[in-house]
C-alpha cells in the first residue's frame, strides 16, 4: 500500500525533520560548547578548552544557594500540587456530584491564563490577604500553576480505572478513605509520579511568577536572568549547562516512567 | 546461646516464606482517633461529600478564581494599596487611561502582532515535523523521534532564551560564521531586534504546537490516506481534503496554546527585545515595580490583555474549529 | 431454620423506571441459589442491593434476621465476585485474597494460614506472588472467588462471573464452582442470564422478569413444569401449543389444539372447561416414527427442516397449515426417517398445561 506514495515527499519531510532537530539543538549545543572556553568573554571561535568555569560555578555560593532554594520551592510545590490535584480529580470523577464540568473548567483556569497575568493577579491576591512576598507566596503561585497539570494527568488515569475496583474494596470491608489509600492511590501511582516530576520542572523553570511574588532570595531562573542582564560570561554558560543536564536527565526519567505506566 | 541462635534463624526463615501483610491498617481504622474523625465522617453522605469536595472547592474558588476576581476589583479602584488618610473610590479611569495614551496602546498591539506572527510561523514550521513523526516514521521509531524533539524543552525558558543570545549576538555563532566565510565585514546586529525576539519566541514555544498537532495527526487512520490515494488523490489533494480537516482539532488547540503562551511571555522579550520591541507585559510590569506603584492601572491593563487574548483565542476557535462542533 | 437472606417487599426504581418490584425472597443457608433472567430483569439490581451498593426505594433486606437495608457494603458480611473480577492490579494474588482479612484485624500468621488454605482449595499455591495481569482468565476467576470467600461471608454473591470466559472454560468452572460451594458449605447467590449455567449448578432457581419473580423452584421443576409461558420459553427449548380445554380426567386434561384432540398433565393447575391454555411440550419428549404410534397423542406431519447438531438432529415438523413442531431425534433413529411424511407422538404425561397469561390480561 505504502508504495503508492512516491518517495519524494517522504524524503523532503525527513530532511525537514532533521533540519528542525538541528534548529532545536544548535543553540543549546553552542551554549554548552561555550562553557568550555578559556577566556573571560563569550565569543567564537573557541581557542583553548577548559573546565575552569565549572570549578568556578561549583564554588559560587550564590549559585548553590539559588539551587537549594529552587529545589526547596519545587519540592513544596510538588507536594501541595499533587495532593490538591488528586483531590480535585477525585471530586471530578465522583458519582452523584453535579457541576463536574464547571469544576473541571475551574481546575484548568490557571493553565489558560497567560503567565504574566497569572503572576500579577497572584501578586494582587497575596496583598489583599496581607501575605508578604517571599517563599510562601512563591510556593502558592507555583502550586496554582501546577495543579491543572496534575488534575489532567490524574483524570486520564482515573478514567481508565475499572469502576469495580473501589466497589470491591468496599465490599471487602474498606470504607471510602481506606479504599482511596489502598486501591485508588496505588493505581494512580506511576502516572502520578511522572506528573510530580513535571511539577518539579515547572516550578524550577518558572520565572515570571517568582519575579512578582519573590522576595530578596534568588531562585535559579532569577539568578540566571540577573546574570544575563549583567553581561555575558562563560560562567553563565557553565551554570546553564549544569542546570540543563540535570533537568533534562530528570525529564527523560519522567518520560520513561510515564511511558512504562501507559504500556502497563 | 546455640539454641537461641537456631530459633532466630528459624524465625528468619519462616519470615521469608510468610509474606508480610498490612496488619497495621486494621489497627488504624479501629483506633478511637480514626473512628471518631474520618471514620465517622465517611459514615454519612454529608460527611463524605464534605470530605471529598471541601478542600478542592475552597482551593478552586480561593486560588483559581480569587486572584482574577481581586484583580478585577482593584482595577476599579482609584487607589491601591490604600494609604492612610486617603480614600479609594470606584472608577473606570484606569481603563480610560489605556485608550487615551498610545504609549500604552502600541505595546498591546505589538504583543498581539508578535504572538500572532509567532503562532503562524510555528504552525507552518511544526506541522510538517508533526506529520512526519506521526505518519511517516514507523511506529517502533515514533517515540524515539518524538523524544528527540522533546529533549531541548527540558531546558527552561531562560536557558533557551540565553542560548538564542549565544547564537545571534554580535560575536555569536552566526556572525562569526558569516565573517569567516567572508560574506560580511562587520557583524549584522541581530540581537535586540524584532527578528531576535521572533526567533526566540518560536524557539521557546514550538513544543506547545508540536504535541497537540502530533496527537491529532496520529489519530487519522492511515487506511484513509491509502484509500484516498487509491481513488486517485495526489499528495496535495490528500493533504487539503483529508489530513488538514481531520487535524483541525490539533491545529486549534495548538494555536490557542501557543498564542496564549506568547502573549504572557515576560522574560524573553526583556532579554531578546530592544527599545523598539517593548511588549505589553513589560508595560504592565512597570506599574508594579516602578518607582510609583499604580496597581489599579496595572490591574486594569492586565485585565484588558486577558480579555482581548481570550477573546482572540475564542474567535479563532470559532472560525476554525466551529464547523466541526456544529456537525456533532 | 431461619433463612440467611430475606428480601421483604423490596422495590427499587430509578426515576420512573421500576427495576425491582415487590421482591419477596427467602434463601436458606448452604444453598446454591440462582437469579436467572434476561438483562434488565432486576437480578443484578437485587444482588447489588444485597451487597449494599444500591439502596431499596422501599422494603427491607434481612441478613441472618437483622435488618441491613441501610448498612453500607463495608459493614455487611456478604462478599461479591464481580463480573470482571475487579482484582486489584497492583497487588499480588496473595495480597488480593488477604485484603478483606487485613481489614478484619487478623495477625500476619492467621492471614497467611487462611490465604494458603484458600489457594490450596483452587490449586493456585504456586501463583501467590503473581500479579493478576500474569494470570489466565480462569485463574483470575478463582482468585476473585477466593478473595470474596476469605473473610468468611454469610452469603457469597456472584454477579455473572463466568460471562467473560470462553465456552469450554465456562463449563469447567461451573463444575468447579459447584464443588467449591459444596466443600465450603457456603450460601451462594448467583446471578446469570444463561439458563444452562443455572440448571447445572443451582439448588434453587429464581426466574425473574421485568423486576418480578416469575417462578422459583429446583431445576427439575422449572424445566419439567414451568409455571408460565415466559419460564417455559426462557429455560430450554420448547413447543407451546395454544389449546382449549375440552374436559378433565383425574390428573389429565383433554384439549383441542389445531383441531386435534390431545391430552396433557394438569401440572397442579385446575383448568376450566373452554379455557385457553398452553401445553408445554419439550422437543425431546416427542417421538418421530414412520409408522403410526400405537398409543398417546399422535399427529401426521411433514419434515420441513433438518438441523444436524452432533449428538442429535433437530427436525422441524409441519403438522398442518404451517404449524411447526420442534423435535429432537437421536442418531440411531434418524436413519429410519429419510422420507418427508412421518408421525409425531408423545405420551400425555410428558406434556404439561400452563396458564395463558395474556388471555387473562
Describe the structure.
Chain A is mostly helical and 264 residues long. Chain A folds into 2 domains: 2-34; 60-263, MetI-like fold, CATH 1.10.3720.10. In chain A, 78% of the residues lie in helices and 0% in strands. Chain A has helices at 7-34, 52-59, 61-93, 100-112, 115-128, 135-159, 164-171, 176-205, 208-213, 220-230, 234-263. In chain A, helix 2 (52-59) packs across helix 11 (234-263), helix 3 (61-93) packs across helix 6 (135-159) and helix 8 (176-205) packs antiparallel against helix 11. In chain A, 48% of the residues are buried. Chain B has 2 domains: 22-75, no CATH class; 96-327, Orthogonal Bundle (MetI-like fold), CATH 1.10.3720.10. Helix content of chain B is 77%, strand content 0%. Chain B is extended, with a radius of gyration of 29 Å. Chain B contains 17 helices and no strands. Chain B has helices at 2-17, 24-30, 32-36, 38-41, 45-75, 93-100, 102-136, 139-150, 157-168, 173-181, 194-219, 222-230, 235-246, 248-264, 267-272, 280-289, 295-327. In chain B, helix 9 (157-168) packs across helix 11. Chain C has helices at residues 43-51, 93-104, 108-121, 137-149, 167-184, 195-201, 219-224, 229-234, 331-334, 357-360; strands spanning 5-14, 17-27, 32-36, 58-63, 66-67, 78-81, 155-159, 187-192, 204-209, 212-217, 239-249, 252-257, 260-265, 276-281, 287-289, 297-308, 313-318, 324-329, 341-346, 352-355. In chain C, the strands form 4 sheets. A 6-stranded mixed sheet of chain C has the order 6-7-8-3-9-10, with helices on both faces. A 5-stranded antiparallel sheet of chain C has the order 13-12-11-14-20. The mean pLDDT of chain C is 84. Chains A and B meet through helix 1, helix 3, helix 4, helix 5 and helix 6 of A and helix 5, helix 7, helix 8, helix 9 and helix 10 of B.
CATH homologous superfamily classification of the largest domain in chain C: P-loop containing nucleotide triphosphate hydrolases
N-to-C terminal Cα separation of chain B, in Å?
81 Å
At the first level of CATH, the class of the largest domain in chain B is Mainly Alpha
Percent of residues in beta strands of chain B = under 5%
Order of helices and strands of chain C: EEEHEEEHHHEHEHEEHHEEEEEEEEHEEH
Gap between N and C termini of chain C: 38 Å
Portion of residues in helices of chain C?
25-40%
Proportion of residues in helical segments of chain B: over 70%
Amino acid at each position: 500500500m505504502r508504495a503508492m506514495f512516491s518517495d519524494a515527499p517522504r524524503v523532503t519531510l525527513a530532511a525537514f525533520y532533521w533540519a528542525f532537530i538541528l534548529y532545536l539543538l544548535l543553540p543549546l549545543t553552542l551554549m554548552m560548547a561555550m562553557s568550555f572556553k578559556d577566556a573571560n568573554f563569550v565569543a567564537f571561535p573557541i581557542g583553548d578548552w577548559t573546565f575552569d568555569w565549572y570549578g568556578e560555578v561549583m564554588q559560587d555560593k550564590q549559585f548553590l544557594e539559588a539551587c537549594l532554594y529552587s529545589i526547596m520551592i519545587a519540592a513544596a510545590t510538588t507536594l501541595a500540587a499533587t495532593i490538591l490535584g488528586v483531590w480535585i480529580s477525585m471530586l471530578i470523577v465522583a458519582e452523584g456530584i453535579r457541576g463536574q464540568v464547571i469544576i473541571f473548567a475551574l481546575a484548568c483556569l490557571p493553565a489558560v491564563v497567560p503567565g504574566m497575568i497569572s503572576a500579577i493577579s497572584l501578586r494582587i491576591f497575596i496583598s489583599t490577604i496581607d501575605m508578604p512576598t517571599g517563599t510562601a507566596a512563591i510556593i502558592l503561585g507555583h502550586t496554582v500553576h501546577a495543579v491543572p497539570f496534575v488534575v489532567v494527568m490524574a483524570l486520564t488515569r482515573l478514567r481508565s480505572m475499572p469502576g469495580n475496583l473501589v466497589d470491591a474494596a468496599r465490599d471487602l470491608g474498606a470504607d471510602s478513605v481506606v479504599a482511596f489509600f489502598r486501591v485508588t492511590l496505588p493505581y494512580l501511582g506511576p502516572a502520578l509520579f511522572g506528573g510530580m516530576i513535571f511539577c518539579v520542572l515547572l516550578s524550577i523553570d518558572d520565572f515570571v511568577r517568582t519575579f512578582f511574588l519573590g522576595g530578596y532570595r534568588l531562585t535559579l531562573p532569577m539568578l540566571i536572568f540577573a546574570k544575563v542582564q549583567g553581561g555575558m560570561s562563560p560562567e553563565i554558560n557553565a551554570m546553564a549547562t549544569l542546570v540543563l543536564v540535570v533537568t533534562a536527565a530528570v525529564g527523560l526519567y519522567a518520560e520513561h516512567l510515564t511511558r512504562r505506566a501507559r504500556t502497563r | 546461646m546455640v539454641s537461641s541462635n537456631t530459633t532466630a534463624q528459624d524465625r528468619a526463615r519462616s519470615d521469608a516464606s510468610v509474606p508480610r501483610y498490612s496488619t497495621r491498617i486494621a489497627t488504624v481504622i479501629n483506633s478511637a482517633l480514626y473512628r471518631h474523625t474520618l471514620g465517622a465522617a465517611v459514615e454519612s453522605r454529608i460527611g463524605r461529600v464534605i470530605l471529598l469536595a471541601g478542600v478542592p472547592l475552597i482551593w478552586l474558588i480561593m486560588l483559581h478564581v480569587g486572584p482574577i476576581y481581586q484583580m478585577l476589583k482593584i482595577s476599579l479602584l482609584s487607589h491601591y494599596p490604600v494609604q492612610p488618610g486617603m480614600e479609594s473610590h470606584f472608577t473606570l479611569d484606569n481603563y480610560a487611561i489605556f485608550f487615551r495614551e498610545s504609549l500604552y496602546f502600541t505595546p498591546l498591539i505589538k504583543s498581539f502582532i508578535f504572538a500572532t506572527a509567532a503562532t503562524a510561523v510555528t504552525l507552518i514550521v511544526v506541522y510538517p515535523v508533526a506529520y512526519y513523526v506521526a505518519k511517516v516514521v514507523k511506529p517502533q521509531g515514533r517515540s524515539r523521534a518524538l523524544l528527540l524533539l522533546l529533549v531541548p524543552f527540558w531546558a527552561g525558558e531562560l536557558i533557551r532564551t540565553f542560548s538564542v543570545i549565544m547564537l545571534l549576538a554580535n560575536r555569536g555563532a552566526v556572525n562569526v560564521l558569516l565573517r569567516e566565510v567572508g560574506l560580511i565585514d562587520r557583524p549584522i546586529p541581530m540581537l535586540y531586534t524584532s527578528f531576535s525576539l521572533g526567533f526566540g519566541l518560536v524557539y521557546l514555544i514550538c513544543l506547545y504546537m508540536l504535541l497537540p498537532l502530533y496527537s491529532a495527526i496520529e489519530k487519522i487512520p492511515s487506511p484513509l490516506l491509502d484509500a484516498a490515494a487509491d481513488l486517485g488523490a495526489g499528495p496535495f489533494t490528500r493533504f487539503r481534503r483529508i489530513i488538514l480537516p481531520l487535524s483541525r482539532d490539533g491545529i486549534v488547540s495548538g494555536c490557542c496554546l501557543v498564542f496564549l503562551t506568547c502573549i504572557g511571555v515576560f522574560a524573553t522579550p526583556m532579554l531578546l527585545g530592544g527599545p523598539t520591541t517593548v511588549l505589553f507585559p513589560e508595560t504592565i510590569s512597570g506599574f508594579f515595580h516602578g518607582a510609583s506603584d499604580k496597581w489599579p492601572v496595572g490591574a486594569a491593563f492586565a485585565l484588558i490583555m486577558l480579555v482581548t487574548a481570550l477573546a482572540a483565542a475564542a474567535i479563532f476557535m470559532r472560525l476554525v474549529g466551529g464547523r466541526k462542533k456544529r456537525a456533532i | 431454620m431461619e433463612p440467611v437472606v430475606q428480601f421483604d417487599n423490596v422495590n427499587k426504581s430509578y426515576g420512573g423506571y421500576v427495576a425491582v418490584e415487590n421482591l419477596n425472597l427467602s434463601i436458606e443457608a448452604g444453598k446454591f441459589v440462582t437469579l436467572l433472567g434476561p438483562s434488565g430483569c432486576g437480578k443484578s439490581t437485587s444482588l447489588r442491593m444485597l451487597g449494599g451498593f444500591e439502596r431499596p426505594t422501599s422494603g427491607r433486606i434481612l441478613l441472618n434476621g437483622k435488618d441491613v437495608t441501610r448498612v453500607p457494603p463495608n459493614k455487611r458480611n456478604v462478599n461479591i465476585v464481580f463480573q470482571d473480577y475487579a482484582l486489584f492490579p497492583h497487588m499480588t494474588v496473595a495480597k488480593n485474597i488477604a485484603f478483606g482479612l487485613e481489614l478484619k484485624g487478623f495477625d500476619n500468621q492467621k492471614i497467611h494460614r487462611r490465604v494458603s488454605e484458600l489457594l490450596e482449595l483452587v490449586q493456585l499455591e504456586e501463583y501467590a506472588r503473581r500479579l493478576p495481569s500474569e494470570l489466565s482468565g480462569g485463574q483470575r476467576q478463582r482468585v476473585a472467588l477466593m478473595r470474596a470467600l476469605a473473610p468468611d461471608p454469610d452469603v457469597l454473591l456472584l454477579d455473572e462471573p463466568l460471562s467473560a470466559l470462553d465456552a469450554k472454560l465456562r463449563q469447567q468452572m461451573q463444575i468447579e464452582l459447584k464443588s467449591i460451594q459444596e466443600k465450603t458449605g457456603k450460601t451462594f447467590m448467583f446471578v446469570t442470564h444463561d439458563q444452562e449455567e443455572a440448571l447445572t449448578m443451582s439448588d434453587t432457581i429464581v426466574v425473574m422478569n421485568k423486576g418480578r419473580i416469575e417462578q422459583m423452584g429446583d431445576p427439575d421443576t422449572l424445566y419439567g413444569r414451568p409455571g408460565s409461558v415466559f419460564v417455559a420459553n426462557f429455560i430450554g427449548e420448547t413447543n407451546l401449543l395454544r389449546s382449549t380445554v375440552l374436559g378433565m380426567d383425574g390428573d389429565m386434561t383433554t384439549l383441542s389444539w389445531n383441531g386435534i384432540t390431545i391430552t396433557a398433565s394438569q401440572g397442579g393447575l385446575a383448568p376450566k372447561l373452554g379455557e385457553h391454555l398452553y401445553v408445554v411440550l419439550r422437543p425431546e419428549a416427542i417421538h418421530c416414527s414412520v409408522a403410526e404410534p400405537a398409543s398417546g397423542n399422535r399427529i401426521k406431519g411433514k419434515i420441513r427442516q433438518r438441523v444436524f447438531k452432533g449428538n442429535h438432529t433437530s427436525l422441524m415438523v409441519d403438522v398442518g397449515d404451517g404449524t411447526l413442531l420442534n423435535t429432537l431425534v437421536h442418531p440411531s433413529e434418524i436413519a429410519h426417517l429419510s422420507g418427508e411424511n412421518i408421525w409425531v407422538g408423545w405420551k400425555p404425561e410428558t406434556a404439561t398445561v400452563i396458564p395463558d397469561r395474556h388471555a387473562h390480561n
